[in-house]
Design brief:
This protein is an alpha/beta fold. Helix 2 links the parallel strand 3 and strand 4. The protein has helices at 3-22, 99-106, 129-143, 162-171, 220-223, 265-280, 304-310, and strands at residues 39-45, 55-61, 78-84, 110-114, 151-160, 177-183, 204-209, 231-236, 325-331, 334-340. Helix 2 runs parallel beside helix 6 (265-280) and helix 3 crosses helix 4. A ten-stranded mixed sheet has the order 1-2-4-3-5-6-7-8-9-10, sandwiched between helices. It is globular, with a radius of gyration of 20 Å. Residues 1-24 form the signal peptide. Residues 81-202 form the AB hydrolase-1 domain.
Length: 341
């Protein structure tokens, strides 16, 4: 047996050993992930609870009642995702970001949605207090949160509107931030100077509509070709700024003319986010090959137990949508586009 074969065998054995050890006590026979999810739980925290500020934490669970449900233990550490809300002048707006966070938690992530101070102030300001809050929140989840021992330091950032801009700035602060997603980031409103997203050397996803709230030609379309790979983009024709939340969830949707043409943007964006982070935010730096570069969910065969936790309609909305949506991507393996319907 030559040296190469021996090293390869040892590597495989080490991988199996690590893989087996970290989930040997998992109550289900798979690691929760974007393709094979479980249920989720969530819990609210305030400064009186030791958190840096008000926030809601979502996490994998096997309990059918999400509020304060027990966290799923024994299934390896869960990477962290921070969801950064945008500017909306309503009480506890951060709690409106529920659907995407819950599905990401079902997909094997711990997701924290913090209340961001001064989010109405433009995120380009060098001393924006939101940057300190994001750092404090991340450190708290990784080191102090009651289940911090279950959280992996690899982190993803997803942000909406101003939150996308602030999240991009924060994503540059730590090498363990491994993936970034922008939901209608208002890049066209960035003042003079380099966009923070241009220097992100990590996988990126940009989702937006083409509503009159922003000029697409000076937004994502302006810098798309200059971004490093892998990069992904989803454009909803007739999509509006607040379509990521269920209809009527926020009063702010009226500030941009209401809702867009697609009634299922919230669930479609949720599938795209779970596919994106499921592919790239892992405990290794290798993308999950079972999720295609298009981010269109693959066909799956689930066991009866997996189907129980996945529920009806799991990852079927994007493949069957009648909404006008164009996906584009460029990775090391190639590039492509796909238009629905």
């Amino acid at each position: 047996m030559n040296t190469y074969t021996v090293k390869r065998l040892l590597g495989v054995l080490l991988l199996l050993f690590v893989s087996g050890c970290c989930h040997r006590d998992c109550p289900v026979n798979w690691r929760p992930n974007a393709l094979f999810p479980v249920f989720y739980g969530h819990k609210d925290y305030l400064t009186d609870d030791g958190a840096p500020g008000p926030c809601r934490v979502f996490y994998p669970s096997l309990d059918g009642a999400p509020l304060n449900a027990p966290v799923l233990e024994g299934c390896c550490k869960y990477p962290l995702i921070i969801l950064v809300h945008g500017h909306c002048d309503e009480e506890e707006h951060y709690k409106k970001w529920f659907l995407q966070a819950a599905q990401l938690a079902r997909s094997g992530f711990v997701v924290v949605v913090p209340q961001i101070p001064s989010i109405g102030t433009h995120p380009s300001e060098e001393s924006h207090p939101g940057l300190a809050r994001l750092s404090e929140i991340r450190n708290w989840v990784l080191n102090t949160w009651e289940h911090h021992e279950l959280v992996h330091s690899f982190t993803g950032i997803a942000g909406h509107s101003y939150g996308a801009l602030l999240g991009a700035r924060f994503a540059k602060t730590d090498a363990d931030i491994k993936a970034y997603a922008s939901l209608s980031g208002v890049w066209e409103n960035w003042p003079s100077g380099p966009l923070p997203v241009m220097s992100l050397n990590l996988p990126t996803l940009f989702i937006r509509g083409n509503d009159p709230f922003g000029d697409f030609s000076t937004g994502v379309g302006h810098f798309w070709n200059s971004l490093p790979v892998p990069k992904h983009q989803a454009v909803f024709q007739g999509g509006f700024h607040w379509d990521y939340l269920p209809s009527g969830a926020t009063n702010c949707e009226q500030s941009v003319g209401g809702r867009g043409d697609c009634s299922s943007t919230s669930i479609l964006s949720t599938e795209l986010l779970s596919m994106f982070f499921g592919k790239y935010l892992r405990k290794s730096n290798r993308p999950y090959a079972r999720i295609p570069n298009s981010l269109i969910p693959p066909d799956l065969t689930l066991t009866s137990e997996q189907q129980f936790y996945a529920g009806g309609g799991h990852l079927t909305y994007l493949k069957n949508t009648n909404c006008s949506l164009t996906l584009s991507w460029k990775t090391n393996e190639g590039s492509g586009t796909h238009t629905f319907p």
